[in-house]
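question for whoever is on the cluster today: can someone run the full assembly for these? two chains, 619 residues total. i dont have access anymore since they changed the login thing
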Amino acid sequence: MKKLSVLVVSLLFSGCDQADLPVTTSDVLPTEVADRLPPSAPRTFGFGGEATDERIALWDIDVKPDGEGLPSGSGTVAQGKLVYETQCIACHGATGTEGPFDRLVGTEPWEEWPSARVVGAYWPYATTLFDYIVKAMPQLTPGTLTADQTYAVIAYVLNMNGLVADDAVMNATTLPAVEMPGRDRFVADDRRGGAEVR
Amino acid sequence: MAKKSSSPLSRRAWITTASGVVAAGLIKTQADAVKIVAQEVPTPAQDPTKVPGRLTSELGQRAPAEQPRRLVRSPNLSSSSRTPLQDLYGVITPADLHFERHHAGIPNIIQEEHELLVHGMVERPMVFSMADLKRYPQTSRIRFVECSGNGGGAYNRDRMPTEVTPQSLDGLLSTSEWTGVVLSTLLREVGIRNGASWILAEGSDAAVMSRSVPLEKAMDDAMLAYGQNGEAIRPEQGYPLRLLLPGWEGNAQVKWLRRIEITDRPTMTRDETSKYTDPLKGGRARQFSFVMDAKSIITFPAFPYQLPDPGWWEIKGLAWSGRGKITRVDVSTDGGSSWTPAELQGPILSKSTVRFRHLWDWDGRETHILSRAVDETGYVQPTVQQLWEARGERTSYHHNHQRVWKVASDGAVTFGLGDLV
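^ ran it for u. tokens below:
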């Protein structure tokens, strides 16, 4: 009985080993042989449609740390103050420190604020602000800020954190260039299983 | 967990809801404890063998006295609810009790209108309807999903809880049979271009939740799931489509999945920089700490249960590892001085919870009971002191240290770590 259940389980969860490896020209190879396609499977199935450039552009609004994906437009610290005080202040407080939701401002060593993860001490990339705010903020009306408003409010938040000057202008060129104090804090995950506790 | 028949429950059954009326004499009033409200189960008027029973119905219901509930602490748009681990049997979490963690609420999505866009460093950028996805070869796998913040309530030396239930402490853990299409099948379909090394997975919720995932994992055992425990995936779990990354932290397993971009670098989204990174000693923070290391918790006996008398009791709990199979769970009934391998309930599946059991002849004296899981990499679930030493006392996420319960001489069970640190 035990052997039978082992066999069933191995059939269910190990699959066969005549793996048809996914078509990839990168160096990445799959390590799990379970549920690979049978040898008879076609090279492609063709279920699904072509994604046109227009279709991709509609959703591909994420911003990479080097600034790829940032739209045109710009905003100043002064403009951002207006955006902040109408759109953000209720959740993040007058100076970005009062809450009730995430604290945004702080340049203390982050050890003083280990759970606050403030922009000035912890966030490693300024571009993340754009990627996040333009999609997810304000929380009750997400995705409603224009590119100019988003650049502006980021300029204001960075200014409150002492990271850009009062006359700073944020745009697709200046935003990725902002030096973030949190940048060098991050290290790769070194946990590997085995006997060690990391 | 069924209460002993010496309790008032034998005459009056009570049903769990959020309103907080407490059954007298059984469970102490704790904000944290199982919340109970009066909904008396009708006492059978007659011998059930002497009266015809109910007819068939289109949708079954739980027995009136069996009403496990998720624990919702402070409902808001970015919030969570927890699985009642102490109330469940086996390893499968009923879909309506699967824990929740949302970042901008649960979106309303019409399956017929939902699409998945796969683009970036691919030969053929494609859009898939749900019908398209369901036409691809289908796979089912039993896997746990755990929030990496699970158990953080029992890490801080100064705020170590005593009156905390398994649900309250570790209920951001659930296990389901997930059904869908293996992600590598779709990536094969679109054709990955040379140099690609990451994907960006993005949800269709109001947070447009997005995470970067190494392509290696996407090609390994990642899955696009549309089924959960035999039915369509629940809205709270990502209906109609979620990313499943077996063994990895829940946050990266993006729900309501609408887009996958193949890239050559991580996007550095908010939830992989400001959140879900683990502060370490020396001003460092660990990033992309995806894997949920081996862990276990005794779910019985546990707070607020009170053992009514000494004698034979079966200690029961769950163990799991994001690195593969659990190979052993040790149980100690003397505060960690000696350990005995527990019985593991098969089948033992990779990256799934496993039920463990240990028969215990309690002598009625105060003691501490605890468990430690070992996985197939040889990793042993650490003590909290080991994690403090490795990461510092102010880290967050991935709190997989041993859970300790104190059993008092009157049988009352409380979370016991406070006595040992």
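summary bc i know u wont read the tokens: The longest strand of chain B covers residues 173-182. Chain B touches chain A through 89 residues (CB under 8 Å).
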